[in-house]
Amino acid sequence: MAKAFIDILKAVEVEQQQRQAIVLALRGDQGLLEPVGTSPMPGSKADFGPLAVPAVRATMSAVHRNQRYRYRAMDYDPYRPEIIADPYPAYRQLRAEDPVHWSDKLGGWVLTRYDDVKEALHGQRFSADRATPFADHMAAKDEPEIARVGRMLGRWVVFNDPPRHTVLRRLLFEAFSPKMIDGLRGQIAETVDALLDDLTGRDRIDLVGDFAFPLPAIVIAHVLGVPERDLDQFRAWSSDLATLVGNARATPDRYRRGGRALLALTEYFEGVVAERRRQGSEAALVDRLIAARDTDDALNEDELVANCILILFAGHETTTNLIANGMALLLQRPGQMAALRAEPALTAKAIEEMLRFETPAHSVVRIAAEDQTLHGKDIRRGDRVFVMIGAANHDPAMFEQPEHFDIMRKPGRHIAFGYGPHFCIGAHLARVEGRVAFEALLRRLPEMSFAEETLDWIDTLVLRGLRSLPLVRTPLAA
Asked: Model-level pTM?
């Protein structure tokens, strides 16, 4: 049977590489039969009729999987320590040699070129609903509690496609309009000064825990209408939830740990909604969402609570990472820090370069909504696609000397806040918080330097940020 099957393949001129895969499989090389990813090989439409006995079906699956590896530059594993510390050499190689890369580790395609990433973010060929497939997968694995968590995440606006996405986004947008955010500048400045007052005179600080986290968390709590006294609890919940949303592979119990945090946040916001509804408050975002629920029936109760959780979680993660990543970049480049300290008007430009160079929201996942071919690779409907925003922001086809951090770079064109319908509604808030924060940090903490030699990056693919940033006081030379 093996000889007859190989003769058939020769007759139809199947490529030598594919024939070799079948020969090895028929000889019993089980390595080729190991499951790869979450779907059969893209592009497979073969039907061998009576020949399609189990062994032959298995070998054809091996053939289709083998197509994924043609011309593959590397086996990209984003969780290797050296890539967590510095992902950009791997991105360079992928962009140049394999811009549509199949990753065994991720079970999906990896896009790294600017134009491809931008199209995936904007186009209709990719779906943002990756929570439903996750929930269905966990249900099939007899993990009902994790499946429930996936369905709860599926109510977040970022995991929805139009038309539901359009409705939910419109309800949230008003609270983050430039007019509303500009009105918060005074409160943001007061919060920055209060946090820095607490750091005055200290010889050692953790910029993340002492400043970069509490600043945006306090601000977003105000926007939502929840008390600042719960800040420490928010941080614990957010940290655990990030292991789930960011798929932190170094945290083996990330699903259960993140799930517990999501359930706790759900219970918390159910209480907040009930109390605000009882009080008849109208000042905060949660109040406007309650009104939309009770008056217009524009969203259901579960969606109301779920998107309050999203705003709390996403409303501080980007800014926390922007501030910590940006300060690390400046400390590594004293000349640029000195230039920025001497000319604070450059802060807006510097913020854009920080966002480009160490993009806080580093990647997003999309699901192929239809069969398609990109750079010669067949992507099938339902395949996972990892859209690497951080790689796109280092594409030399779009940015001159992209590996050079330059606060004088002409701003624009980076896609750190996404692109298209899912462009981050909190982008203006993050920029305002970043500008106020850096102007004050450089003025009031001029004598800080790294306390440790290496940076401790979080191990998630979705977020690019530091667990902590220990700094020590180093008196300036006279």
From this structure: 0.83
